[in-house]
Design brief:
One of its GO terms (molecular function) is ATP binding. Belongs to the ABC transporter superfamily. It is found in: Cell membrane. By secondary structure, the protein is an alpha/beta fold. It has 2 domains: 1-82 and 159-246, Rossmann fold (3-Layer(aba) Sandwich); 89-158, no CATH class. Helix content is 37%, strand content 26%. The strands form 2 sheets. A 6-stranded mixed β-sheet has the order 6-7-8-3-9-10, with helices on both faces. Strands 2-1-4-5 form a 4-stranded antiparallel β-sheet, with helices on one face. Strand 4 and strand 5 (67-68) form a beta hairpin. Helix 3 packs parallel to helix 5 (143-155) and helix 5 runs parallel beside helix 6 (173-188). The chain is globular, with a radius of gyration of 18 Å. The mean pLDDT is 92.
Length: 246
Amino acid sequence: MPEVLVRIEKVNKHFGENHVLRDIDLDIHSGEVVVLLGASGSGKSTLCRCVNRLETVDSGVISLAGVPLPDEGGELARLRARVGMVFQSFNLFGHLSVLDNITLAPIRVRGLSRREADERARQLLDRVGLGDKADARPAQLSGGQQQRVAIARALAMDPQVLLFDEPTSALDPETVGEVLDVMAALAADGMTMLVVTHEMGFARRVADRIVFLDEGRVHETATPDEFFDAPRTERAREFLSKVLSH
């Protein structure tokens, strides 16, 4: 069994009176693709953001490669650099070229030289099918192209795990596939991934495990075939009957 890369133990999170994560326990192994499914408001995105420490937790521990994530400080910055994140909105810098968007963090945070960072960025642009867009500005790209740049930017930090928070939900239908294809290729290459998505076909095809959240709790963990063909809980059956009926 591969090593546990991300360990989430008894994690709780409140927003005011709203208890959004309730005693979450989850291990993600090296090279594994875990897809979080659940209705809106079930806690999926919040859990993702807690793993990247964009949100702090009220109680519990999140560890990366056996090291608990601290709440703040330089050690948190170093650990966070090993957890890449791709957001629903692409969060690219509009005034920078595609190449500069990708090289900014490796130069500033990892201390790469301009030449090293440029070389790596161009390799990653080729990998996501955008080798000819290095000098373009984000506004000149489609939504799908911008999201592929955002994936290349996350990969440029050489993360141990990549988090995807609904990466296709802001895209036109015809560009969704190009982003999912890049994600599937990363999974095939052994990238450890935690994915929040509403793309059920992708979840079934690419996930090693489905984790179903409801009202802040893990209700079910299963292989894709088990989850989609024979969900064990009534809540999961209800969820699937709604999302798969259209």
